[in-house]
Structures are given as C-alpha cells and as structure tokens.
Amino acid sequence: MKTKIRNIEVLKQALKNLGIAYTEAAEGTTLSIKGWEQETAQARISIETGCSYPIGVTLNDKGEAEFVADWWAIETWTERKQTDILAEFTRQYAYETVMDKVRSSGYDVVTEESDSEERVRVVVRKWT
Asked: Is 68 helix (H, G, I), strand (E, B) or coil?
C-alpha cells in the first residue's frame, strides 16, 4: 500500500514527532529551496536536513505533497538516501493519520508495539 501525503497539518505533526525542524511559509507566500548550482524551487514548507540543503514540500494539482530538494547534496552531506528520508516521513505520516482517526473516533490506545521491521501494532478500545 502506498501512502499519499495530502494533509499538511498531519505532515507537520509527523515532522514534529520525528524531531525534525521545519519552516512554513506565511499564507499566500512560498519559501525558496536551495538547489544545485544556485537554482531554487518554491515550496510551502522547508524541512531542515542537517546540511545547508533543505527539502521543500509543495502540493501538486491532486493535492498530494511532493518533496523537492537537491537530493545528491543532501545524501553527500548527511549520508542519508532520498528513499530512506521519504520512507521515514511517510511512515510517521501514516502513523499520525491512523492515530488521529483512532482518537477522533473515541478509541483509547491500550497497547502499542513496534517490531524490528518498523511495523507498528496498536490495540485500541472504545468504552460505551
């Protein structure tokens, strides 16, 4: 199953819970994302990477998040691959989405476990 990131508020919560700093553009504006050879892209959110090259978040015509960056520079300076970074964001986004739905539906989390393959098992209960 492929998760599509559509809710920017949930993405921001996921980044916060991962301990990743970000900056959001003011309403109606964008942020410049530094790219290769002084090129820039415009984005709604700029995600810090630990080097001078941030990751930008834009929304496409379908309302889905797209991540723009100089991935070569980020991998060179942080030793983290694009696929690993985006997988981390997507996993946490999916988790936040499920937990938000659990809470908004009136359920309480009874137990939560993660395994070595980063799968999460959550047991919930609803008192009626």
From this structure: strand
What burial letters (b/e) apply to 68-106, b meaning 16+ CB within 10 Å? bbbbebbbeeeeeeeeebeebbbbbbbbbbebeeeeeee
R_g over Cα of the chain: 17
pLDDT given for residue 48 in this prediction: 97
**Burial bucket for residue 128 (CB in 10 Å: 0-12, 13-18, 19+):** exposed
pTM summary value: 0.86
Q: Tokens representing 85?
A: 């970074």
Under 8 Å between Cβ of 14 and 89? yes
pLDDT at residue 116, rounded to an integer: 83
For residue 34, count other CB atoms closer than 10 A to its CB: 16
Tokens 């990743």, residue located: 20
What is the spatial distance between Cα 92 and Cα 17, in angstroms, rounded to a whole number? 8
Rounded Cα–Cα distance for residues 13 and 64 (Å): 17
Query: Can you tell me whether residue 7 is helix, strand or coil?
Result: coil
